[in-house]
Every structure is written in structure tokens, then in C-alpha cells.
Amino acid sequence: MSLMLAAKLARRELRGGLQGFRVFLACLALGVAAIAAVGMVRSAIEGGLATQGAALLGGDAQMEFTYRTATDEERAFMDAMSMATSEVIDFRSMAVVGEDRALTQVKAVDSAYPLVGAVELDPAIPLAQALAVENDLPGAVMDRVLVDRLGLALGDPFKMGTQSFRLSAVLVKEPDSATGGFGLGPRTIVLTSALANSGLISAGSLFESQYRLLLPPETDLDAAKASAEDAFRDKGLRWSDSRRATPGVARFVERIGSFLVLVGLAGLAVGGVGVSAAVRAYLDGKIATIATLKTLGASGRMIFQTYLMQIGALTVLGVTLGLILGAGVPLALSPLIKASLPFPVDFALYPAPLAEAAFYGSVTALLFTLWPLARVQNVRAAVLYRGGDGRVAWPNWVHWLALVALVALLIGGAAWLSGLAFLALWAAAGVVAALGILWATAYGLRLAARALARSGLARGHVGLRAALAAIGGPRDEAASVILSLGLGLTVLASVGQIDANLRAAISRDLPSVAPSYFFVDIQNDQIDGFLTRTKADPGVTRVESAAMLRGVVTKINGVDARQVAGEHWVVRGDRGVTYAATLPEGTELTGGTFWPSDYTGPPQLSFAQEEADEIGLKLGDTVTVNILGRDIEAKITSFRKVDFSTGGMGFVMMLNPAAVAGAPHTFIATVYSDAASEARLLRDVAGAYPNITAVRVRDAINRVSDALSAIATATAWAAGATLLTGFVVLIGAAAAGERLRIYEAAVLKTLGASRAQIMGSFALRAALTGAAAGVVAILAGGLAAWGVMHFVMETTFIFEPLSALAIVIGGVLATLLAGLAFVWRPLAARPAQVLRAQE
Q1: For 104-114, how does the pLDDT look when each residue is reduced to its tens digit (9 = 90+)?
Q2: Which of 26, 69, 407, 520 is the most buried if burial means most Cβ atoms within 10 Å?
Q3: What gap in Å lies between CA 315 and CA 361, rounded to an integer?
Q4: Are residues 402 and 336 part of one domain?
Q5: Is pLDDT of 389 > 60?
């Protein structure tokens, strides 16, 4: 009966409309919409990658090898498994036109390419026609950026290595572009056969060979993968298939999407503050009603059930509005999103992200409304006869237990659903800590304002004293303002500081520590001449060189490497390997001893100390490295300090020369020179050794910087949604306090204050609370940014003042705008009418 009566009362209460719950609905809808929109876009990308896996990969499956082509045995295995096979060789080279040269990512293909999809060219001609030989020059197609960079026109010749090519078309789209990874230059496509006399592909050259397979429809991909890996895993094989054609892209989308959902949760927490404030304001207006119900015999439990049902119904409405907005906006913007992404996107209504957003919204709404609901349950009937005023009791232990359970459910759900448990727990801890700091700031500001209002410092300043008294009063909205706005600004401040520090680190460190160029594919008979030329250049300050091989760590102490090291980056894919007879200059041993210069015994290995510690390696352990299909089992006899952050030469693994004797390889070099000499140095080296490829370090870092900027921009948009929610809370707080401001304005007018003084008092109050929120946001956001830079990026953190100043100014302006939007009615009210109504 109690539950039925509570439902009846709740239904009657809701007939009065949604007045008082607009902020509740707006905060909840915005938070849910932000999370739903991020999830929808992520699911759309994942859906596109899944449904078009074969087109992205260029076949149903791919077998990939590093710095070698497939052996006859491997080709026979592929031919037996597939209906058709296509070989693609991917490498970097220099495209040369006269004195101009530019780095390009070359894709050398055979006549079967592409097995799936089609290459789009301008003019629209078949790829086979574009790559055909004409006037003794093989054809080539180039990305538009590279064509413009070199000033080429259709039919113009250019060189790669020692081979001349003819530009026959501009590359518009390649179907398998998403599987190409992070390229340092625009794409050029040529026939593999056209490279025979180029000097670019030879034993030891740096390239990837990819074999795309078109499999029979009934093929079991799991069985095919297991069969290939069992046969060739220890020979450096990497398998991928259409089920996960772009693991790097998929992993990136999954992680950045999960991270943005966590940022969205911060926005939902801001909305939760608004939800709590709206419920508290609504229930404050219902105290007389509640006390009357108590007088008529209603129990505290029934009162709790009545208003919980109301809030529950409104929560369903707010979450529904958020889901409609979160699903509708991405669908409406789908053409723009598709055009801006380099991989397929399949937009549809995905239930999983919508369910996730609904879960977050419902739990957050219940968490932030349970406190005011629990307190109002204990309102005494005597409150009615005190004019509806008085203290409300604290919640009992059952409600405290429910609050703890809801917090655990929200954090646990975030950790599980995001797939980033560690980050989710830290993000939750950060949000809780930020809310605690902001609440303490609001409480401290109230105490300070109260003390200053009573002191002599504000004497004679009517507006200042009124503002301080209002902030320090028991009913001021300072807590809601500082909590909501402060948390949104904290997220934005941390994003700004991280972005500024990343950019500063790149621009600060590059000139002093990074080389000007990486030179790769230096042949054994070229290294001496290369070193002589570069060291003789007056602009060159330092040259480092090393032999370059690539190997896959297959076993550690005879056990599969992944069983020992898990997913550590050293055992995931192939790694650079070098050899040296003596310890290179400037190298610091941290343990063990380096082999003698004339050592010819069993293979010995010097390993990077930091990576060895992470994997758990010790002196005497054995590591099996597969280099060009040959297993080399070497004993670790020393550890070295390797600093990859300098941008210079660094190898995790260094072998004694006899261990790799006879293995074909090339050399790489890093050259440090002043900026004025870079162009001359490149022309000199390229002119003497056309096959050598130069990678300008500054260009490579700029590409990384652009990628980081894109991530920062996406995060800033998510933070902006959080800030928008905070602004809605400000509007709600200002609207809720309008009645009190009317009374304050009437009293001040009666005491002789002018309209300008009253408006100045209201503006000063808003400025003080906004500034407090901004200052705390700078401190909390700076601390969060320091943690990311120190523990994740492992680099120096330097406080960036400009973005910090913008945060404070933004906080002040936001509260001023929200406050001034509700100042006109208090200023226009007649004191006599207002004061008469209070009698």
C-alpha cells in the first residue's frame, strides 16, 4: 500500500510540469549525449574496419616479412592455401627532380595488385596502364602532395635511386591505405619489376614484404593462422587477416575512444553537481508539503519513495533525451566525419554505446540525487510550523551504504567498459580529488567572505560588503558554481598544459639533441665514403653510424618470448639489431662485461638495461633472435644504458660481429648539422649515393606533433562538452538564486544603494566565485598534467602561464554571464512590494 500510495503522490506531483527540473534534465542529457556520441563514432569506425576488412587489408589474409621476401617454401605454402596471391614491397626512398628531392613511401606491386578493391587515379585510367613502360620509362603514380612538392606534371620524369620513372597519374585513393601504418612521406606506387636496376632493393635493404592472399570462402581463418604461424613464426612471419585488418588503427581508436569516454564521465560528474543542486532546490521548496504529509501520517519511507519515483521518471526522460542527442548528432554529421577519416566508417544505431551511456547517466543521476533525497526523508512535521525552515537530518547508515555501492558501481563499470582499468581508476580518483578540493575551496571561500564582510576592510564599500555577505551566507550558490565550473575548467586546464608541454618539449629539445637526418640503406661498400663526405662537411658537427639488421625475439631461455615478456614492445614485432667489435664511444655499461674485439665464440648479446628490467632479464639468460629467417641464440653478457629520447642512435640488442657473420645488412647513420647546411648536405649525399634514403628528423617529429595535436583537439572538444555542462549548472544556480537576489536588491535599495552599486555587487560576487574556480582548476589541472607528463610521457613538465590565465579569465566571464542573465528582475523590482511580500 505504501508503494502504491507513493506512486500516486509522485504522479500527482509530476502533473505540475517540469519547472525546477530544467537544469536537471539539461545536465543529465548533455552528459549522456557526450558519452553516447563518442561511443557511436567509435563503434562506427570499428564497424567500418570489421565489415571492410578484406578491402582494407587487400585480401582475406596477409603474411608479412621484414627486410626479406618470401622463400620458395613460404611461397609454396601461400599458393597451396590461396586462390590468388599478390606481393607488395613497402619501403622509403627519395624522389628526385633536378636539385629537388623529397621523401616518399614507395609501394612496389605486382600485376595482381589489388586483389580486392580498386586504385583511384586522376586521370581515371587502370593501374596497369599507369604503371606500364612507355618510351623506355616505367610508369609511376604519386600522391598529389608529392606531385605539387616536386612541381611535376603528367608525363614528367623523376628518379628514385638510379632508376628514372614517368609520372603517369595522380594517386587519389588506394584501397589498402589504412594498413600502411605511419608513413613518413607521401605515397608513390610502381611495379616491383621496375626497381630491378634502381639499387633500392637488395640484400640488407630496409623494406617490408607483404603477401596478400585471396582465400576460398570456406577457409577457417583461425586454422589458417595457426598453420602459418606454426610453420613460419620463428622465421619472422607476421600474420593478419580481414577480421582485424588494421590492428594498429583499431587499437588506437579503441583506446582514444575509451579515453574520451572517461573525459565524458568528468562532464557527467559536473552534470551530477547540477543534478544534485536542482534536486536540493526542488526539495527545499517542498519542505512544507513534506511536513504536511508527515502530519497526516506519512512515513519517512513513503516520502523517500515518492520523490525517488519522481526523480526516477525524470532520469529516464533525461537519459532518453541524451541518447537521442548522442545518437542523432553523429548520424547527422556522418558525411563530414566520413570525409575527414582515412578509413571506412559504418554509421548506424549501435546499441552497445547507447547502453553504456544510459548506464553511466542512470547511475550518476541516482548517485547525486540520493543524498538530498535521503536527508529530506527525515524532515520533521514541526518544520511546517516554523515557516518551512530548519535543519534537515543527515542520512542514515543504509543510505551511506547505498552511496558507497553506487560509487563502486560507477567506477567499476568505467574500468570494465572502457577497457583501460588503470586509467579509469586514476581518472575516478582524480575526479573525486578535484571535487573534494573544489568543495573545500567553496567552503573556505564562504568562511573568508564571511570574515571579511564583518571586518573593517569592507566598511564604506556597500557593493563589496554585500557581495562578501552573500557569498558567506548559508543559501549562496558558491558551492554549485565552484564545483561545476571548477571541474570543467580543470579538465580543460590539464588538456591545455599537456598540449603546451608536448609542443614545448619538441621545439625545446630538437635543436640541441636531435640529429638533422637519419640516413638508411647505406651499403657496405658505401659506408666509408659516406662517412668521409659527411665528416668533411664544415656544417656537420657529429656523425654516428651502425650496422642495421632487423630481428624478431622468438624465445627467452628456450621459452616462447611472449610467455615470458607478455605484450612488451620488444617482443611485439621485429626490432633493430646491430653488432660491434668494441663498445661504441659514449656507451655506458650498467652490468656485465663487453666481449673482446677479437671474440669468435658462441653468440653474446648486450641488452638495454631499462628494457631488460621491464622484461625481467638477467646476466646469463639466453635470447633467441630470428634474423632473416635464421635463429641466433645468444647469451646476455652485458647491459647498456640506452636513451631513446635523444633521437639519436639506439639499439635494444647488440651482438658480437661473429654472431651475424655473413648476414646481409646495410648501415644507418645519424648526422648532426646546423640548419643552414642541411640542404647542401642532402644534395651532396643524394648525388653521390642515389640509393641512400634520408629522413629529416624535424619533418618526422612534426608529423608526430600533428598526430598529438589531433588527439589534443579531440580531447579539448570533450572537455568543452564538460565545460558546457558546467555553464548550464551556472545558469541553474543563477536562476535558483534569483528570488534571493530580488530580496537583497530590495534591502540594498532601501538602504540607499544605487542600481550601479547593486549590479556591481552582483558582478563582484560572480567574479570572485569564478576566479576561485579558475585558480583551483589551474592547480588541479596542472597537477594532472604533471602526472601525465612525468609518469606517461616521461619528460619534463613546465607550467604554461598563458593557458592558465585564459582559464581564470574564462571562469570569471562564465560566472559573470550566467549571473548577469538573471540580474534584471532584481534591479527592476520595487522594494516596497518585495518587502511587503516577506511579512
Answers
A1: 989 999 999 98
A2: 26
A3: 8
A4: yes
A5: no
